[in-house]
Structure formats: structure tokens, C-alpha cells
Design goal:
This protein is globular. Helix 5 packs across helix 12. The protein is built from twelve helices and nine strands. The strands form two sheets. A five-stranded parallel sheet has the order 7-6-5-8-9. The chain is of the alpha/beta class. The chain is 43% helix and 14% strand. It starts with 15 loop residues before the first helix and ends with a helix. It folds into two domains: 134 residues, Aspartate/ornithine carbamoyltransferase (Rossmann fold); 161 residues, Rossmann fold (3-Layer(aba) Sandwich).
Length: 313
């Protein structure tokens, strides 16, 4: 499958077959890593990594995935470059596109990564914006496939802030791959209705469903995975107390896991987690937790994405 020179801004632009291909490739590079097979497929290539926001998994995944294949990743914080300050985003994109083979961006506005992709002339990867987190969802889909052996027909329930980038991005990934997706959230934090209607149209093609509700017990039964995220995302720390008030009833704890009536139900989280808030300690540290698999799979899915889009698969 030819994904050469493609950017990843959201998963909307990728077909279900293309996502499935990336997941297969991810499994291959993970197996290579476990067997200590070294191939150096990015030898002589460079990757610009632009970060407006702090990062553990995204930075380490991109940097190690590119570096261990012989490439040279360059970390650029907004303290280091002129992005949007003395130099426009368009001009920064043109300059970096002449010097690098690909660009990763992690920051605030979705518009920024879209402008980079428009003007750079090289693949641009969205490492997180306020709207979307597509590389995380690739890792989540890989983790689900590893756990169950398939994706179509699974049921994933997201509990928490229904408007944040993970709720948005999981909706796309589930709709593309035929996973029934349920957002359980207080009504004050429901996602944009127009956006959900758009995703429902995608879900129709794969035969899956998208549900948004504030009711837990009626909608959690039969879940194969329960997913949550921090209650106050980066940049929203001032809203933390209000979020605790709204979201405390939606904490993922053992009672919630038991409500699924599915002993094989797993717990997922993009991390970092505030243990004792969005998830209880016993769940995230318990046998149903797959958060460490998700974290590792960030690296393998990101490597697969770069191999495919840089013509090295």
C-alpha cells in the first residue's frame, strides 16, 4: 500500500484499509525490536520535532523510533525557533521542509499543524493538538488488536471529558475500524454535536455505532475496553476544581469495571494519569490495565507511520 509523502493530521484522512496496513506494519517492527533486528532504514535522514507542549511518550517514541533506524531527530521547542513569533508558520514550514525529511508537531492549535503540512513539502505528523491526538489512537488500536485479535465488533467506552482530543480522536479510530464507541460524560462536557454527526457518517460505512450519553449503567454493559483521560488537559489547569466536581461520578474504578459484566474487559489510558482522580489506583495497577502496552506501542506505531510515509516500509 502506497502512503508515500502522506501527512497524519487526523485519522479522518486515512481509510480503514490504510489504518489496518499501518497496524500490520506496527506488529512487524515490534517483532523486529523484540528480536533485536537492526535495519537502519532512516540512515541519512532527518526529522524535525517541534514541541509547544511537554511530552514523555510522544517525544521518546518519535526520537527513539527514528534514531534507532539510523536517522537524526532534532528536538525544537518554541524557545529554540521562531515559530509564529518573528517568523510565520508558513515560512518556518518552508525552511524546515528544505532541511528535514519529515516534521513532527506537538502543540496547541490544529491550524498550526495543518499550515505546516500545507507549506513544508514533506510529511508532517500530528503529535497532539487541542483537537486531535492521532498517533495515540494508532497505539490504542494496536493494543486492542493485540488483546482481542480483531477490532471490528469490539465495544470501547470512553469516560470523562467528552470534548477533549482523546474523545475526538478515539471516535474517528473506532468509526474507521468498526468499533462501537460510547462516550459517557456529564452533559456540560458533551462533544460538539456537529462533529459527532460527522463521525456517525463514517461509522455507518464500517457498521459501527457512536453513542454520547451521561448515563453509565445502561451503556457500559458488554464493554471490551474502558478508556479515560486526565480531567484537566494541558492548558486547562485553572479548570481543575470544576472538572473534579463534574467528573468525580465518572471515575473508572473497580465498580465501573464490574458493571461491564465482561471479565475480559481491559482498562486503557493515554497517560500521564492522575491516580485517584480519573482512575482508581487498583484499576490502573491491576490485571485489567493495558496502559503500559499502549505506551510501548506509541513507538512501534509511530515507527510504522514514518516507514510507510517516507517510503521505507
Amino acid at each position: 500500500m502506497n502512503l508515500l509523502n502522506r501527512s497524519l493530521l487526523t485519522l479522518k484522512e486515512f481509510s480503514s484499509d490504510e489504518i489496518a496496513y499501518l497496524l500490520d506494519l506496527s506488529e512487524m517492527v515490534k517483532a523486529e525490536k523484540r528480536k533485536k533486528i537492526v535495519k537502519q532504514r532512516f540512515l541519512g535522514m532527518t526529522l524535525a520535532m517541534i514541541f509547544e507542549k511537554r511530552s514523555t511518550r510522544t517525544r521518546c517514541a518519535f526520537e527513539t523510533a527514528f534514531g534507532e533506524e539510523g536517522g537524526h531527530p532534532v528536538f525544537l521547542s518554541t524557545d529554540d525557533i521562531q515559530l509564529g513569533a518573528k517568523e510565520s508558520i508558513e515560512d518556518t514550514a518552508r525552511v524546515l521542509g528544505r532541511m528535514f525529511d519529515a516534521i513532527e508537531f506537538r502543540g496547541y492549535k490544529q491550524e498550526t499543524v495543518e499550515i505546516l503540512a500545507k507549506y513544508a513539502g514533506v510529511p508532517v505528523y500530528n503529535g497532539l493538538t487541542d483537537m486531535y491526538h492521532p498517533t495515540q489512537v494508532l497505539a490504542d488500536l494496536m493494543t486492542l488488536k493485540e488483546e482481542f485479535g480483531y477490532l471490528k465488533g469490539l465495544k470501547l467506552v470512553y469516560m470523562g471529558d467528552g470534548r477533549n482530543n482523546m474523545a475526538n480522536s478515539l471516535a474517528i479510530g473506532c468509526a474507521k475500524m468498526g468499533i462501537d464507541y460510547v462516550i459517557i460524560s456529564p452533559e456540560e462536557l458533551f462533544p460538539d454535536e456537529q462533529y459527532i454527526n460527522e463521525i456517525k457518517e463514517i461509522a455507518k460505512k464500517s457498521g459501527s455505532s457512536i453513542t454520547v450519553t451521561s448515563k453509565i449503567e445502561d451503556n457500559i454493559v458488554g464493554a471490551d475496553a474502558i478508556y479515560t483521560d486526565v480531567w484537566a488537559s494541558m492548558g486547562e489547569e485553572a479548570k481543575a476544581l470544576e472538572r473534579i466536581r463534574l467528573l468525580t461520578p465518572y471515575q473508572v474504578n473497580q465498580d465501573i469495571m464490574d458493571m461491564t459484566k465482561n471479565k475480559k474487559c481491559i482498562f486503557m489510558h493515554c497517560l500521564p494519569a492522575v491516580k485517584g482522580q480519573e482512575v482508581s489506583f487498583d484499576v490502573i495497577e491491576g490485571p485489567s490495565s493495558r496502559v503500559w502496552d499502549e505506551a510501548e506501542n506509541r513507538k512501534h506505531t509511530i515507527k510504522a507511520l514514518m516507514l510507510a510515509t517516507l517510503g521505507k516500509a
